[in-house]
Write a sequence for this structure.
């Protein structure tokens, strides 16, 4: 397994432990409520490394939680109810920095779904 695969799995396990099923990779056909580790962006020129190409780098990961869109207010409230537990679970991962949690909508599989998106960073 690669370090990125291991990182995706650890993030997914932390979110799942908070109470919402989380997959380490985006699914082909998501069936909400569900979460998944979406984009990983690797930065090898981050300020923490004196703005020069350097390994190790800094990875920014996006974790998307989604729910059904048939009741937008109820689904949004449902996902927002997980925020404290997800944050607590993510705080338990050594070396992980939580950047943000954003509540709103995300386009997943061509549908605008209620979503809470978490952004975290870690060294690799």
């Amino acid at each position: 397994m690669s370090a990125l695969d291991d990182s995706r799995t650890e993030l997914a396990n932390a979110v799942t432990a908070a109470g919402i099923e989380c997959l380490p990779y985006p699914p082909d056909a998501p069936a909400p409520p569900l979460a998944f580790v979406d984009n990983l962006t690797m930065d090898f020129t981050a300020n923490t490394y004196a703005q020069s190409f350097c390994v190790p780098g800094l990875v920014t990961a996006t974790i998307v939680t989604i729910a059904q869109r048939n009741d937008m207010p109820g689904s949004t409230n449902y996902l927002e109810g997980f925020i404290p537990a997800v944050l607590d679970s993510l705080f338990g991962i050594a070396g992980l920095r939580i950047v943000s949690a954003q509540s709103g909508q995300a386009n997943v599989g061509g549908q605008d779904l209620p979503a809470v998106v978490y952004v975290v960073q870690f060294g690799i």
